[in-house]
Amino acid sequence: MLKRIAYITLFALTLTSCSDDLDEINKNPNATETPLAPYLLTGTLKQGADLYWGSTNNFDSSLLFVQHWAKIQYTEPDRFDVSNASFTTLWNTGYATLITDLNTILNFPADQANSNYKGIALTLRSWTFLLLTDAYGSIPYKEAGQKVTPAYNTQKEVYTGLLEDLKQAQTLLNTANGTVTGDLVYKGDITKWKKLVNSLRLRIALRISDREPALAKQAAIDATSDAAGVLSSNSDTFKFTYTSSPQQNPASAWFETRDDYRISKTLVDKLNELADPRLPVYAQLPSDATVGKYVGGANGLSNSDANSQGFAKTSKPGTYFLTSSSPAVIASYSETLFNLAEAVARGYISGNAEQLYNDAITASFNQFGITNAATISTYLNQAVVKYDASNYAKSIGTQKWIAFYGQGLDAFTEWRRLDFPVLTAGPATVLDGKIPSRFFYPGTEQSLNGASYQAAIAVQGKDLLTTKLWFDVK
Amino acid sequence: MKKKLNRYTWICILLISIGIKAQETKPLIQSKLEGTVIDAVTKEPVIGASVNIKGTTHGVLTDFDGKFFFQTGQKFPYTLVVSFLGYKKAETVVTQNAVVIGLEQEQNQLSEVVVTALGISKEKKSLGYTTQSLKNKEIVDTKETNFLNNLTGKLAGVRITNSQGDMGSSRIIIRGETSIAGNNQPLFVVDGVPVDNSQLGSVGGATRDFKNAIADLNPQDIESLTVLKGPNAAALYGSRAAHGVVLITTKSGKNQKGLGISFSTGITISQVTTLPRFQNSFGQGSNGRFSFVDGKGGGINDGVDESWGPRLDGRLIPQFYSNGEAVPFVAHPDNVKDFFNTGVTYDNSVSVAKSDEKSDFRLGVNNQKQLGTVPNSEVNKTNVSINSNYQISKGIKVGVTGNYIVTDAPALPGGPSGNRAAGVMLQFIWFGRQVDINQLKNNRNVNWNNSYYSNPYWNAYYNTTSQQRNRIIGDIHLDAKLAEGLNFRFRTGIDYYNDRRKYKIKYGTNGTPFGSYAEDAYTVSEQNTEGIFTYTKKLSDDFTVDALGGFNVRTHSDANNYQKAPRLAVPDLYTITNSRDPLTASNSYSRLKVYSAYASAQFGYKNYAYLNLTARNDWSSTLPSSNRSYFYPSVNGSLILSEALNLKSNTLDFLKVRGGWSEVGNDADPYQLSTVYNFQTAFDGNPIQTSSQKKLNENLKPETTRSTEIGLEASFWKNRLHFDAAYYNTNSFDQILEIKTTASSGYNSQLINAGKINNRGIELQLDGNPIQTENFKWNVALNYSKNKSEVKILDYDRQIQNYTIGTSGGVDVLASVGQAYGALYGTAYLRDANGNIVVGANGLPKADPQKKVLGHYTPDWIGGITNTITYKNLELSFLVDASVGGELFSGTNRTGNYTGVLAQTLPGRGAENGGLNYYLAGTTKTLLPAGASAPGGATVYDDGMIFNGVYADGTPNTQVLSAQEYYKASYNISEAYIYSSTFVKLREVKLTYNVDKKLARKIGFDGASITAAGRNLFFIYKDAPNIDPETAFNTGNAQGLESLALPTTRNFSLNLNLKF
Q1: Among partner residues B690, B746, B923, which is closest to A95 by beta-carbon distance?
Q2: Contacts of B584 in chain A (CB under 8 A)
Q3: Domain holding A330: CATH number?
């Protein structure tokens, strides 16, 4: 009897202990080890748009620095009272999500991703690196994704490297190289991607123009002489269009539950000065109907002073930007035209700078739904708008600043480079009257990549908001 | 694969090759003897003592009245051997006359028996390591709803961090954090069954501090609890022994003659303690101005949820409840305190036990109803436990234990930090000082601020988190006596539970206008099957050997399923389908399996020298096949010097030295070998995949912990003083760490396998009876422990200097190379060469761009002292415990200074508080001498303050700030909010009256006692203002970050125990 029990127990035990394969048990049932190129592409486009258009990098930082928006409460970021924990999103998402996913596509064998996927991945990766270096300065570029503690490269190295990367992207992209799915922006239209590549090359050419004019000129020529051309209409504009909750525009999602921002008084004043018809698109009338006009919030006020302006008596950003399906514009036709105008003005390429400047403004009007030719020509013929060939930076800088409304990171970069319009730091700001010239590196760099970080700031200068970056000469 | 299997087959062969013998003898019926066994001193009957006739196998147990009866073939006179745990063995020669045998209590350590690893009982003197035990009485009387809290201050080397609030988790750490990244909680084993102690859903932005799973146990069921401190004591438990083991033995029906019924009822009252100290001079608003219109910016500063507003001097101002009418603006000093209720816990237990020669059983039922201090919070828990054994035949015994636990919490209090919809303390650290809480209580639809919050009662009653947990813990086991000295034990045990949470946010909640609903469900299963052979043999008069060999198969699995309707379609219907958006959902499964074989041997020489050896090999599914098998040994010994060298005297009773070395291995979590990609919510029909941002490691090898321990134990003056000291040194290396890496490496974290951490420390226990008479006894029990840790390396290339354990409010908790574990790393003030804080031209302090180590959360030492005074049937005890050293970062102080609600923001606010006069020249604040008037009749402000610092050139700061600017100035400077965590608490006072047994019996009971107890009574000392420095964030390793924790509670309980 007992023996029988013992035998049965042992038999059962032997079965349970010997029938499972320990390797099989440890196979992850929750996620895949083998991703697909179109799904990664969709992911990077969506996450890239969120990054560019979302709060941390846009309306809680760069959009305030360039005085497009202002805070009406919790004004710390508007007063530049921020810390090295404030700018971690761009770094972390840029590298660990966007660049890593794009590198995954680039490293796929040909049967998992055709060369068009790779061309697109290289283009988007270059755009991401560009955002990073524009904001922080020196960044890990050559060793990014290769080492646990990658060394930083200078801006010069990064920009020139990106020009090479984009040149290569252009050769990878070809309508004959296979179809691409998962492309929510251009729907697989490779000709548009090729235009975007050239527009980005032109953008970078101007970034380095104050430092490396010869290189900049060559890059501008390369970009504009490429057979594929640059962005040539508003339908070529590189923008990510949201749908509805939970896939809604990040600014729209923010305003659904919170009420922290107003259009900046600086911008409203400028638009009023220029009688700019974009004002009703850029701003809403204050909710208190008795005000009856557009009123911006001043930047850089103390919390109570900001509050005292009145939530109901100041203008929120326009509904164009706050509906759930509002697009995240990343590279516009208008910007390309401004860049062409500047490249002509600098003598890099031939053309009519004034005409390109006017076309750029017109493209911006069209982008925001203003198409009436008479309205546009009235605007362009104002003395305060007319292209000033003797000070192209002022004309282009001011109009580009207006056209970039909502694209905080690029507005911030181009404002630093062109130095127009002249902005004044708000009264309660904490940088001794200065406006930031860059983002702090994430504080975690000090603990996680200390040696590389120290080497980088030894060259670039202290890790302060006011340290000027290489491209930003003045 | 087949080849691998062969490794296990030896176990099977070994098992099969054993024959099973049964043996029986029958006594001849002849002589009769009656007797009673009593305590020689108290004269109380000794129940359940074993009485054997010397030289035979015939023995009986004493009954309830200490009586026994023999009917044997043995001729008088013969010798009886009487023994009972805790008493000296007695031998008496008997004739046919009834006999009374008095037992003397054991006064030395020579025969004390303790439970060791795998539930094996051993003589304590033979062990080369420390164990420490607590009895039921020390755990149960104070009725903590998380019974781990009851252990605080009572065990040397055991650090228990109490729950925040009254329904949260408790963290237990034995001998410091030996794992840099992993779980540092000990393994819990209940009656041989490893039991899960996870705290599910506490990570990643959860807004509740859920109880850790071990809190499910009913302390009434616990007979004793033994702590095996670290690998030396716990080596046989293998992988999970590195952090120590808590062995819990539950009550059984053994020794219960006849039917015994116990009844216990208790009530506990809880009050919140350590609320922040608020100021009552200034109300809501900013720059001294406030007027309410809509609570979101429509009036003057009425969207501002800070208290920098007008003086609370009764001036007339429209407020949130007054419909625009100007009403007196006055302080409501207790407006936060009055939100909290007095908590009440009802606890009732009944148990029935019985035993006879062949069987025993115990059935216990416990019901606990807790109404918490946060309004509407409630937890109900019912435990049913059974423990039964049956002797099938002479050599074979089978048994079963089972514990069925149902926890039903209709609403749990909001947790740390928390979101605006459900957090409790978040709103209160911004709460306008003029707010009348009764106005909010009476109308949940209005609130004092509509920019950010809903009415706190709205949150408490409508935005609830509920939890239901159904759990079964149990085993079946078989004990067989195979031959003289050779026994076999087989056990298969399971711990299985479902845990379901429902998160409701009501339609119309501020910040979540459409409300939301989520369900989060967990299923956890831990299964262990083990077989153990034990063999005991006396080799000669001097030598004994005790050997053990066994195997274990462990399977652990958990599953999670989460679904959320992010915005409800219609109000007040909480279903997943009532959603206007696509659902967000996720699920995950995890499973691991470990095969183990182990053996141990103990060699004894002349009852005073012992050598213990253990060995174990594990095969874990979580490691790559090449590294899957790992072996680890341990050795320890003890020498009773008092016996070996004949040192025993009137002064010295006992002297023992001990020492040991051990190694344990540890596996990884499941699925750590291959890097994966995650799915995100598809966009408009397009699936999204993205990097998991975590680089895994296909070459993982097991972690190893090596520990050396030495100790000394002594007792003096007939055990009036007992002393135990231990020193240990533990090195844990090849630790599997998910280190945070710079994102520019491509991943936010990478799994490495190199970390090394050293922990060393001492533990002292002292137990003395300064006064001991027949009626009066005073006992002092003291424990002290000191642990020092040092993170040695993180990676072999030495590229990585820091491992981030956690982050809150800009402060990281790091394992930093060369530092003690748990460094608080954050922003410091910028200081000049002389250590002065540097301010800018604006008079505001500057932050040092270089972050700094600001402290460590681990204390330097902890200790507790319990005094117990017994007079006849009255027993009074009080426990004071202390945690000295260590720092914390306080989010409450940081936010409270910013919002101006704390009393500590009063200095400088107005002339009456020492504020300086100034006026505005343009926008520049300009200091005025007292009494002077401003040029041009400009307004003079009297709340000026100057930050104590210097300009960059070294000259003292002269720029005046408003008090509001002053107190906000350090918000982003973590250093300003680092405090010492040192505290001394009067933890427990307890008064018990044991009804005299004779008296009890007269009124129909076998025993009765009544206990009144108070817990967490008050701080004798603490440094950190406004908070309880002890509060745990959760059970994880990221401690030292206080963030708007719920106030801890002070509990008073009354408890009645009756035995029938």
Answers
A1: B746
A2: 246
A3: 1.25.40.390
Q: Work out the burial of residue B203: count CB atoms within 10 Å of its CB; fewer than 13 is exposed, 13-18 middle, 19 or more buried.
A: exposed
Using the predicted structure, report yes or no on whether residue A1 has a pLDDT greater than 50.
no
B907 and chain A in contact, CB less than 8 A? no
Model pLDDT for residues B791-806, shown as the tens digit of each residue: 999 988 887 888 888 8
State the sign of the Cα–Cα–Cα–Cα dihedral B445, B448, B454, B458: negative
| Domain of B36, in residue numbers | 2-106
What's the ipTM? 0.91
Q: Is residue A97 part of a domain?
A: yes
A389 domain-assigned: yes
pLDDT of residue A444: 85
Neighbours of B564 (CB within 10 A): 18
Q: How many domains does chain B have?
A: 1
Task: Suggest the residue from B744, B898, B951, B961 to mutate for an interface test with chain A (most A CBs closer than 10 A).
Answer: B744
- Give yes or no for B750 touching A (CB within 8 A): yes
- For chain B positions 911-950, those within 8 Å of chain A (CB to CB) are 923
Question: Residue type at A170?
Answer: Q
Residue A377 lies in a domain: yes
Report in angstroms the alpha-carbon separations of B698 from A22, B180, B303, B617. Answer: 15, 20, 54, 22
pLDDT attached to residue B167: 82
- Per-residue tokens: A307: 């509050």
Domain that holds residue A212: 37-246+325-460
Q: Who wins on pLDDT, B649 or A295?
A: A295
d(C-alpha B237, C-alpha B188), whole Å: 11
Give pLDDT tens digits for B527-548: 999 999 999 988 888 999 999 9
Neighbours of B657 (CB within 10 A): 15
Q: Using the Cα atoms of residue B925, residue B928, residue B931 and residue B932 in order, give the sign of their dihedral.
A: negative
Tokens of A295: 């009123």
Q: Give the residue among B748, B749, B760, B783 at the shortest CA–CA distance from B710.
A: B760
Which CATH number fits the domain that encloses residue B10?
2.60.40.1120
pLDDT band at B971 (very low <50, low <70, confident <90, very high): very high
The Cβ of residue A139 has, within 10 Å, a number of other Cβ atoms equal to 25
B679: number of Cβ within 10 Å: 16
Residue A146 lies in a domain: yes
How many domains in chain A? 1
